[in-house]
Amino acid sequence: MLNVKTENACHSHSEKKKRDFVSDKAKSIPPSGIRRFFDLAGEMENIISLGVGEPDYSTPWHICDAAITSIEQGHTAYTSNTGMDLLRKELSRFLSERYKISYNPSNEMIITTGVSEALDIAIRAVINPGDEALVIDPIYVSYAPCVTLAGGVPVPVPCREKDHFRLTADNLMERVTPRSKALILNFPNNPTGAVMRREDLKAISDIAIDHDLVILSDEVYAELTYEGKHCATASIEGLMDRTITLSGFSKAFAMTGWRLGYLCAPPEISAAALKIHQYVMLSAPTMSQYAAIEALKNGEESMLSMVHEYHMRRNLFIDSLNRIGLTCHQPEGAFYAFPSVEKTGLSDYEFAERLITEAEVAVVPGSVFGTGGIGHLRCSYAVSREDLSEAVNRMDGFIQSL
Amino acid sequence: MDDIDRSLLSLLEENCNIPVHEMAVMLECSDEEIIRRRSRLEEEGIIRRYSAVINWEQVDKGAVYAIIELKVSPERDFGYDRIAGRIGRFSNVRDLRLRSGSSDLQLLVTGKSMQEIARFVAEHIAPMECIRETSTHIIMKTYKENGVLYAEREDGKRLPFSF
Question: B103 phi and psi, to 5 degrees?
Answer without folding.
Answer: -120, 175
